[in-house]
TrEMBL record:
It catalyses: [protein]-peptidylproline (omega=180) = [protein]-peptidylproline (omega=0). Keywords: Chaperone, Cytoplasm, Isomerase, Rotamase. Its main location: cytoplasm. SUPFAM superfamilies: FKBP-like (SSF54534). GO terms for molecular function: isomerase activity. Residues 6-79 form the PPIase FKBP-type domain. PROSITE patterns: FKBP_PPIASE (PS50059). The keyword Isomerase applies. This is Peptidyl-prolyl cis-trans isomerase. Also involved in hydrogenase metallocenter assembly, probably by participating in the nickel insertion step. This function in hydrogenase biosynthesis requires chaperone activity and the presence of the metal-binding domain, but not PPIase activity. It is found in: Cytoplasm. Gene3D superfamilies: 3.10.50.40. Its EC number is 5.2.1.8.
Length: 162
């Protein structure tokens, strides 16, 4: 099956900038998303269109097709209790996840106080030209449940209450 709207796509990727590896999914689970539901970077989704399980390819994305350009002085003070990550002690340079009305955002800690942290709201990869080496693992039709929820369900359902 080829990747098209409403297909569930599982893929591994290695991400690099200027030939230097930044991130890879190879040591863990493949990434999965529903094609055509804006759950994936626009440029990467465009490159995945029409591919099938077993396909390997590389695509280089300008900032406009991935995480956007960097915006200077995009700093916001956020209460520490709203920062999510693998730590109890936040330090400048660390990244955290913040949930807002606009969804989930990755932020970079600039300065930490007793109750708040000043965070750079730019995505850590904003302003970078990124190369994705992609291996398509599996392609299947999304279920009606997945389409109504807007995300892929793992084995045994999606694990959240309705």
């Amino acid at each position: 099956m080829q990747i098209s709207k409403d297909a569930v796509v599982e893929f591994h990727y290695t991400l690099s900038e200027a030939g230097e590896q930044i991130e890879s999914s190879k040591d863990g689970e493949p990434l999965s998303y529903i094609h055509g539901t804006e759950g994936m970077l626009p440029g990467l989704e465009k490159a995945l269109e029409g591919k099938a399980a077993g396909d390997n390819f590389s695509v280089t994305l300008e900032p406009s097709e991935s995480y956007g350009e960097r915006v200077d002085n995009l700093i916001q003070r956020i209460p520490l209790k709203h920062l999510q990550g693998n730590t109890k002690v936040w330090k400048p340079g660390m990244t955290a996840i913040v949930h807002s009305n606009q969804g989930r955002h990755q932020v970079t800690i600039v300065k930490v106080g007793r109750f708040n942290a000043d965070c750079d709201l730019n995505h850590p990869f904003a302003g970078k030209t990124l190369t994705f080496d992609v291996e398509v693992i599996n392609v299947r039709q999304a279920t009606a449940d997945e389409l109504s929820h807007g995300h892929v369900h793992g084995e045994g359902g999606c694990g959240h209450s309705h």
